[in-house]
Amino acid sequence: MICPINRDVILLSRRGEPATAADADIARDLLETLRAHAEECVGMAANMIGENKRIIAFYDEGRYEVMLNPELMKKSGAYDTEEGCLSLDGKRPTVRYRSIKVRWQTVDGKPRIKTFEGFTAQIIQHELDHLEGILI
Prior knowledge:
By secondary structure, the protein is of the alpha+beta class. 23% of the residues lie in helices and 42% in strands. It has a five-stranded antiparallel β-sheet.
């Protein structure tokens, strides 16, 4: 289901709750909503559709990915940038890292670890901020 974009800063400021296999419908809705906004958005966190769960979806080199309970394990190559967000107006300055290593679970519960670089790493970092209640 394509969900409306949440703009409630109170919900967006909450740290996400751990996701479980029971949250597969939320992950599916998040992915469908991201695809519906593909022209203006490359990543979303569950709180952007009103769900306070640790789930993100993003576009990565020609395909969409979903992560449950992603954790940043390593980061390197800090740089300054500006980012916008569908849930917030305008752009904001932030610091991102060129390379990140992330641990997460797939929707069916399989553990994964991968290093991401460049723009994909930036997208994931933005969504990880959402999971922590950090408004960017």
